[in-house]
Amino acid sequence: MNQKNEIVNKLRTSGLRPTKQRVLIAKSLFDSDKTFHFTVETLNKKINKNGVTKVSLATIYNTVEAFTSAGYLKEILTSKNKSYYDTNIKSHHHFYDEGSKELTDIRYSQIRLSKIPTPPKGKKIKNLEVVIRIQK
Amino acid sequence: MNQKNEIVNKLRTSGLRPTKQRVLIAKSLFDSDKTFHFTVETLNKKINKNGVTKVSLATIYNTVEAFTSAGYLKEILTSKNKSYYDTNIKSHHHFYDEGSKELTDIRYSQIRLSKIPTPPKGKKIKNLEVVIRIQK
DNA sequence: TTCTAGTTTATAATAATTCTAAACTAGAAA
DNA sequence: TTTCTAGTTTAGAATTATTATAAACTAGAA
Question: What pTM was computed for the model?
């Protein structure tokens, strides 16, 4: 599948029609080899550069939310009152620097768990994340 | 040390004078055998029951913040835009139920890590938390 | 008991997010 | 190709959590 179709496909499977605005958002998120972390605020700055509004904030919120529930983005756990997202949806872990408040990826293979609890009755484990808080 | 002095001591070592309001907050937090999770909102409801205001919201925010930096409370990692705290400051982990959005403690001994990455240069590991997301 | 630095509080300000309703458009059907 | 409508976008208002402000109050040293 080419890049264009890939994006249209992600939108469709997230339950979204591929409009101009949504395609722009999807490109900003998925048109890169590297994965990255972002907030709605930083994504908005990236899309609506130099004071030129191409997509409204409301649409960015809605689209990010849809991609997240479809599993194309992962919400990151932090202790801040702002939502952080990761375009890397593979299982992996994070360093959280308490000084700079920055998140860094830790590859899955860098951490190994030798004992995991059984989940409460009727529940299944969806995902497991380790956050290592670091400081100077 | 008795309960009263314990509380005064926690306040003093958090850099706070033991005023009537702060002692009330500290009692709500530490006068129980069981540890628990809370938000400023739930703590406020617990303290200012039945529409009777005993302590202002601002003081609750300030005091919780001071206890947190002093290490008497731990901020919990979530994907929500609200601060969650834990009166259990011992190293432990959490189940996070994506359906009900509830957090449950996992005892430290229930999880064992057999491989941990080295932190970036000049940084030390302060704390390590595992969050296991569960769903139906 | 006095006095002042520290404290409390109601209220305003700010920040992130969600809601609303009117104008617009993708794309199925004619 | 054109028409039509359900879905979409948007600016701005509303809501929610948090932080700031500044005037009235008080713990506790002297």
Answer: 0.88
- In Å, how far is B72's CA from the nearest CA of chain A? 16
In terms of Cβ atoms closer than 10 Å to its own Cβ (0-12, 13-18, 19+), residue B1 is exposed
CATH of domain B3-76: 1.10.10.10
Report the distance from CA of residue B19 to the C1' of nucleotide D26 in Å, as an integer. Answer: 9
List the domain boundaries for chain B: 3-76, 90-134
| Residues 82-121 in B contacting A (C-alpha not used; CB under 8 Å) | 82-83, 95-98, 104, 106, 110-117, 119-120
Q: A40 touching B, CB under 8 A?
A: no
- pLDDT tens digit string along A38-49? 999 999 999 998
Contact by Cβ (8 Å): B108, B90: yes
